[in-house]
Specification:
By secondary structure, this protein is mainly alpha-helical. The protein has a domain of about 120 residues. It is built from 12 helices and 4 strands. Strand 3 and strand 4 form a beta hairpin. The longest helix has 18 residues. The relative contact order is 0.15.
Length: about 240
């Protein structure tokens, strides 16, 4: 993390592009990194934010005990949220809807787009199961009225119903709707809505910081040669290429 903050400082301090890149040695870079002070409490909060947002309830509880970092929501709610997410990821949309209504009935009442996507996922699961007549009836009764009120809903409904026109649905132009990634996409949207209803960030802060790190390095690459972090997993500094 100190690498990130020092990196931003270096980027903003180099105002013009010289004829040749400035070379910053590993020794100089590491010496400057040691001068960047980051509170352990802030690092712990960042870790807890990630664990809570991503739903690692057991890890969050263990980290709370070991670090003394209190989460900003009741950890018991994570279990309920993950049960909703798991049901949706397994294709059991009706169970997911029932669980989210038990958790907070206003979530779906105040988010028509999310509710439509859940119903769309139900239609996809019916098509996946080969229940063609039931799928057509469900589309007509539950989704078509919503499509008439919203053009984007109508377009999504048409793409989904189009699956019924193909014998080999997995290899048709809209086959990606049957991919597991579509379930994950809908589950992620629902997870974000639950977090928002709990006054919690819908996305963890850590990935955003890593994206900023990559951006800052790419910007600084044009102005200087310095020890880079090329592997975010190990966060190892690599000597500057000169």
């Amino acid at each position: 993390m100190s690498h990130f903050y020092y990196l931003l400082g270096r980027f903003t301090s180099i105002e013009t592009v010289p004829m040749s890149k400035k070379v910053i040695t590993r020794e100089e870079w590491e010496r400057k990194l040691k001068d960047v002070k980051i509170r352990k409490e802030d690092m712990n909060k960042l870790v807890m934010n990630f664990l809570v947002t991503e739903g690692y309830v057991e890890a969050a509880e263990k980290f709370r005990v070991e670090s003394g970092t209190e989460p900003d929501i009741d950890l018991a709610t994570i279990t309920d949220r993950m049960a909703v997410k798991k049901a949706l990821q397994s294709g059991n949309v009706e169970d997911a809807i029932e669980k989210v209504n038990d958790l907070n009935p206003t979530i779906l009442d105040t988010n028509p787009q999310l509710y439509f996507h859940l119903q769309q996922q139900r239609l996809i699961e019916l098509i996946r199961s080969g229940k063609i007549e039931e799928a057509l009836e469900f589309a007509q009764e539950e989704l078509a009225p919503r499509g008439e009120e919203n053009q984007s809903f109508l377009e999504e409904l048409e793409r989904t119903v189009a699956l019924l026109a193909f014998e080999d649905v997995k290899n048709c132009p809209y086959g990606e709707l049957l991919d597991v990634s579509q379930r994950l996409k809908t589950a992620s949207e629902l997870n974000a809505a639950i977090l928002t209803s709990q006054s919690h960030e819908k996305d963890p802060k850590l990935p955003s910081l890593l994206k900023m790190l990559i951006w800052a390095q790419n910007q600084l690459d044009e102005k200087a040669a310095y020890p880079r972090i090329n592997n975010l997993t190990t966060a190892a500094l690599e000597d500057p290429a000169v």
